[in-house]
Amino acid sequence: MAMNPMEQFEVKPILEHPLFQIAGHDIFFTNQALLMCVAVAAAALFLTFSVTRGRLVPTRLQSMAEVSYEFVANMIKSTAGDDGMVFFPFVFTIFTFVLFCNFFGMIPGAFTPTSQIIVTLALAAVVMLTVVVTGFIVHGLGFFKLFVPKAPFLLLILLVPIEIISFLTRLVSLSVRLFANMLAGHTMLAVFASFVIALGAAGGILSLLSITPMFMIVFIGALEMLVAFLQAYVFAILTCIYLNEALHLHEHH
Amino acid sequence: MPSPEPDDLKRLAERIDEAERKHAQRKKPPPPTSLGIAFRFATEMVSALLVGGGLGWGIDWAFDHWSHLQTRPWGMVVMFVLGAAAGIRNVMAAAKELNAEMAAKDLEK
Question: Would the CA dihedral through A32, A33, A39, A40 be positive or negative?
């Protein structure tokens, strides 16, 4: 009985016919697209309905929305300073989107959009584009100073390429971190789940043993909940740190 | 309606400040796990190598394609080494950051 733990990451069209065509390629509505739509819709509905009747003494839903606002606002103020608050909508959107995608992925049987590198890479690309555009708007060509550390001129020949590479690295590390964490966690859950079935089917004393991997699933599931939140937080705070560098160059070090 | 005493207001403000401070302290995210730290360093290093190697490959390809110069494999060799240097720099920066975080946490206790 072979269960493939990677099967859960397969992107499959759920509607039989392609929605439309772009340059000869059929564009399908996939399980990936569905889960991302659900995450966006859930986040939008939650935030809209929780604050439509704003009360002085908040209801439970409203205080959840308020806490998430404060959480992101504090995150931006502590890393990028008060003028970083211009980017509040941007950072808040990214944080909520990643958080909801991660959490919807935790529902058994659901697809995890953030376990696809193309999704996280696109998110990271948006972040890095914003950083570069902000840098050029705020500092003009002075933004290139970001790549010039304080060092003797001869060393700069070596250091400037290194700085440029390490700047480009962020695109990869930002996306790989989120993607790999989600991929690893969900694979681990699937592997332990297949142990339960394999042991249960083995019969005799082995069937009794199948309870042990079941306990493991509970623990890993709890850990994954933490990881789901933590990775959304890490993604958002790194966005803030990069935006801070674009806003203030080397001032705040 | 009688206006509230300034003293009362001041005391109220103090209590709000106090509550806010406690609130902010409680909301700190959980500290990174050792697995998380190890994973962070690994991605920093690997992605720098990937970017360096990829850039080098691209440079070689560009020279090959657009000019008659044969740089292969030197572009990739040089950029891969620079990528490794950038990776080590990134890991050191990350370690410094983590150290500062841990020190700040220890101070709070």
Answer: positive
Q: Which residues contact A55 (CB under 8 A, 6 or more apart)?
A: A62
Give the chain A residue nearest B87 (alpha carbons): A166
B9 or B82: which carries more pLDDT confidence?
B82
Residues on chain A touching B82 (C-beta within 8 angstroms): 158, 161-162, 165
Evaluate whether residue A1 is within a structural domain: no
Residue A21 covered by a domain: no
Mean predicted confidence (pLDDT) in B1-12: 74
Q: Find chain B residues with C-beta within 8 A of A169's C-beta.
A: 44, 47-48, 51, 86-87, 90
CB contact under 8 A, B29 and A177: no
Residues A88-124 pLDDT 10s: 999 999 999 999 999 999 998 889 999 999 999 999 9
| Number of domains forming the structure of chain A | 1
Nearest by CB to A165, which of B27, B30, B51?
B51
User: In which domain, by residue range, is A156 found?
Assistant: 26-248
Chain B hits for A180, Cβ within 8 Å: 39, 43
**ipTM higher than the 0.95 cut:** no
The CA-atom distances, in angstroms, between A238 and each of A126, A222, B73 are 13, 24, 35
Does residue A18 fall inside a structural domain? no
Domain regions of chain B by residue span: 33-108
SS3 for B3? coil
How far, CA to CA in Å, does A129 sit from each of A133, A137, A179, A237? 6, 12, 19, 16
Residue A219 to residues A31, A176, A192, A222, A225: CA-CA distances in angstroms?
27, 24, 11, 5, 10
Which residues from chain B sit within 8 angstroms of residue A163, using beta carbons? 86
The reply to whether B102 touches chain A by the CB within 8 Å rule is no
In terms of CA atoms, which chain A residue is nearest residue B91? A166
In a domain, A75, yes or no: yes
A37, containing H or E segment: helix A31-51
